[in-house]
Amino acid sequence: MIKLPALTRAQVRSVDQTAINEYGIPGIVLMENAGSRAAEIIHQVVPEGPIDILCGVGNNGGDGYVIARHLQLMGRKVRILCAVAVDKLRGDAHINAMIAVRSEIPMKIVDPEASPANIPALDHSVAVVDALLGTGARGLLRGRYRDLVNMANMHSGIRIAIDIPTGMDCDTGEVSEPTFVADHTITFVAEKAGFKKNNADDYVGVVHVVGIGVPEKLLNALHPDPES
Questions:
Q1: Pick from 151, 141, 201, 172: which is nearest to 8 by CA?
Q2: CB neighbours of residue 74 within 10 Å
Q3: What residues contact 228, with CB distance under 8 A and at least 6 apart?
Q4: What is the per-residue pLDDT across 29-67, written as a single tens digit (0 to 9) for each?
Q5: Which of 31, 56, 176, 180 is geometrically suited to a Cys-Cys bond with 132, CB 3.0 to 4.6 A?
Q6: Domain limits of the chain?
Q7: Is the pTM of this model over 0.90?
Q8: CA 142 → CA 148, 179, 213, distances in Å?
Q9: DSSP label at residue 201
Q10: Roughly how many angstroms between the first and final C-alpha of the chain, as a whole number?
Q11: Distances in whole angstroms, Cα of residue 8 to Cα of each of 17, 111, 184
């Protein structure tokens, strides 16, 4: 795998859009690659037992639905906690959420009006996966996102972030209160610019970089001189 420099939020967006618009790779293919490869790492690092996956809106949540499906295929017991109802999702995230629904993967919708005490507990799982918000998110967490991250941070098992811990700024590494505290972060294409700033190490844990099928030509354009 090509070693790339850490990517900013704008570069992450550019990689995705270039792969889709100039190379003709459908976004749902990138999402499938991301989720399936993340599931392989989760299967490796998480001991036997149930896994809870927190899915939000957008592509990060879509990755979570793919992860759930592949973990189930690996024989893992999974449950999805949805911060957004499936019918509120759009695009590739909605497609993968509907696949999860039709596959009868256990799923709970977190009522946006529910108090933290009424959010389904995580204490029966050995790991919790954060697929709530991705690299495009900024600012303080509110509502169900804040409550889910607070609950996940109290979890005694392994905590795994997908692409970036929810609550962390991709570019600066600054964290909101709360921010998901990961034991492992599975990030796509390359590390993110904020991972080495503002004590982000305290939140990302062990970082695993995985490819999503982006062509080598595109990656070389990000880092044209591998010797530099």
A1: 172
A2: 11
A3: none
A4: 999 999 999 999 999 999 999 999 999 999 999 999 999
A5: 56
A6: 9-222
A7: yes
A8: 10, 11, 34
A9: H
A10: 17
A11: 14, 33, 20
